[in-house]
Amino acid sequence: MKEVVVKCPATVANLVCGFDILGMALKEPYDIMKLKLIDEPKVVITNKDDYNLPTEAEKNVAGVVLLSIMEKLGGNIGFEVEIEKQIKPGSGLGSSAASAAGAAVAANLLLDNRFTKDELVQFAMNGEKLASGVKHADNITPCITGGVTLIRSIHPLDIVPLNSPSLFVTVVHPQIEVKTSDARQILRKEVLLKDAIKQWGNIAGLVAGFEKGDTDLIGRSLEDVIIEPVRSILIPGFDEIKTRSKEAGALGGGISGSGPSIFMLSTNEATAKSVEAIMQEVFQRLGIDYKTYVTSIAQEGVSEISTK
Q1: 208 Cβ neighbours under 8 A, 6+ residues apart
Q2: Which reaction does it catalyse (predicted)?
Q3: Is residue 180 flagged as an active site residue?
Q4: Active-site residue identified among 180, 267, 292, 295
């Protein structure tokens, strides 16, 4: 195999209460990446979109992942990569993770799957470090494995796949930018013990809810008393959307990653579409452009579309 095209799914990190440790893959939106193996030790990047992302490998999320793979392999191996982003950078939907995970998985396909999924996550985290300054895996892991994942530990890496009931996901991406690095800077460095105890209960409840397929427990556990109260001030209309979505029957939801996207989980498509209408109405009234998706949890991560 000399060339491969892959589809790289958007992801929702944190799942409200699980900051940096929980994430899930979405069926929509997704990026398309084409990777070609070359016999020169270099990375050549071409963007097929209008986001003007860097094409120098050292400054590009996919580029640094491929460079780390090349460093591991040695020899005269290099890559040409074309990236068509449909997940807007700065959306809170794992745009950088899609590039990083897509590069790692596509390169592995070209290299006869010589690396394990855990090794691919390690490579891809180099891209997240470039994007946000931190090696976090809550977007990377579900993007590679699909479904819902728990990152029990980064050092050493310990990934726990979780069961995921058949849920609908409504997402609104207001067309404002919240940089992950900025959204991390405003977080409190210390938390009260009583808040930590409440958060631990919600994380445990959410994991148990996924494992048991208990949607009521999932809904009760979608509460964040540490991160969301700080970050939500960056997103106009957040509180209204969350309150009205739950009144309309959504299980709950919150900020997707560092924002500005907001996600809500529902047990049926009719509720998910009602939530979409609420999101649209709020941002129309606020005069903010937006894009919405009614989708579901992707059980497959980065996947091969075609090969040569």
Answers
A1: 214, 217, 221
A2: L-homoserine + ATP = O-phospho-L-homoserine + ADP + H(+)
A3: yes
A4: 180
- The verdict on whether 215 is a catalytic residue reads no
Ordered domains of the chain (ranges, CATH): 3-162+298-307 (3.30.230.10), 168-296 (3.30.70.890)
Catalytic residue (one of 11, 128, 228, 292): 128
Residue 298 is labelled as binding a ligand: no
Residue 266 labeled ligand binder? no
Asked whether residue 95 is marked as a ligand-binding residue, the answer is yes
- Please indicate if the annotation marks 97 as binding a ligand: yes
Instruction: Provide the sign of the torsion angle of the four alpha carbons 57, 59, 62, 66, taken in this order.
Output: positive
> Are 159 and 141 within 8 A, CB to CB?
yes
CA 253/CA 263 separation, integer angstroms: 5
Can you give the pLDDT of all 308 residues of the chain as single tens digits?
A: 689 999 999 999 999 999 999 999 999 999 999 999 999 999 999 999 999 999 999 999 999 999 999 999 988 899 999 999 999 998 999 999 999 999 999 999 999 999 999 999 999 999 998 988 778 899 999 999 999 999 999 999 999 999 988 999 999 999 987 776 777 777 888 999 999 999 999 999 999 999 999 999 999 999 999 999 999 988 999 999 999 999 999 999 999 998 999 999 999 999 999 999 999 999 999 999 999 999 999 999 999 998 77
Cβ–Cβ under 8 Å, residues 128 and 96: yes
